[in-house]
Amino acid sequence: MRVRYLEAGAEHGGTPLVIVHGYNGSCDYWRPHTVMGMAAERHVVAVDLPGHGLSDKMPVTTLETLSLFLPRFVSALGHRQADLMGHSMGGLVSVAAVEASPRSFRRLALVDSAGLPTLERRLWLVPLRALADSSLRQWRLYPTFLKIALRARTPGETLHIICTADIGPRLAQLSIPTLILWGRNDRVVPLEHGRRMAELIPRAQFKIIEGAGHMPFYERPQECNRIVLDFLRGGG
User: Fold this and answer.
1) pLDDT, position 117
2) H or E segment to which residue 171 belongs
3) How far apart are CA 55 and CA 170, in angstroms?
4) Would you call 48 helix, strand, or coil by DSSP?
5) Which of 53, 119, 142, 160 is deepest in the core (most CB within 10 A)?
6) How far apart are CA 93 and CA 142, in angstroms?
7) Which of 7, 4, 82, 81 has the alpha carbon at shortest distance from 38?
8) pLDDT tens-place string over residues 79-129
9) What is the pLDDT of residues 157-201, one digit of tens each?
10) CA of 225: how far to CAs of 41, 65, 97, 115, 133, in Å?
11) Residues near 143 by Cβ (< 8 Å), separated by ≥ 6?
């Protein structure tokens, strides 16, 4: 299948960082600040998940098929192992990928990750919360957001994944170093989800970005990059 991705910092060599977008997203979400900011010291690859952006759609889109896609993508790029960072829906896909192929990944960063639906029984509130989330008030990026959303070819399948998947049991099985990074003012996936994930993952690091919502890499890009890069170096 054809897969689209953005790549920067390949001259650094070493273990690449693969970045996974959220629901109905694309690697373009990471273009303004994250890819080039982290590429100052890391080899960074931001991917369009199958059925999103300009990547081909898989015959079947489930959490399991998406989780198998990521390690195969890393292998197709010619790498034995990668670091992994997932945002929102990309976080729950990343957790499933690490569980499916733990030797393919060295470190995991989860940014305002979805995956604990048992903490939110009123799903109808999620769109209303999104409208109130400060991270989504990126007016100059609205044309990009709209273009990306219109390209998505699996909105129903991926929404089903978000609403039904519960990665809670998988979190306790994670054996690689994991960072939980959350915007304190997240109204889409509230902070309590991040706290619960940090409790479930063995030896997880939990960091809160003040004054940020669901997309801290837009509102506090320098702080977000610094925390993730420090974690990937083995710090924290």
Assistant:
1) 80
2) helix 168-171
3) 27
4) coil
5) 53
6) 25
7) 7
8) 999 999 999 999 999 999 999 999 999 999 999 999 998 655 555 455 556
9) 998 898 889 999 999 999 999 999 999 999 889 999 999 999 999
10) 11, 29, 23, 23, 21
11) none
Token code pair at residue 174: 């994670």
Which residues lie below 8 Å from residue 219, measured CB to CB, with a gap of 6+?
A: 134, 135, 183, 209, 211, 212, 213
User: Are residues 17 and 82 in contact, defined by beta-carbon separation less than 8 angstroms?
Assistant: yes
217 or 140: whose pLDDT is higher?
217
Using the structure block, give the residue that is written with the tokens 């991270």.
135
Give the chain's largest Cα–Cα span: 47
Chain mean position to CA 229: 15
- ∠ Cα 32 234 214 (to 5°): 35
Phi first, then psi: what are they for 36, rounded to 5°? -70, -30
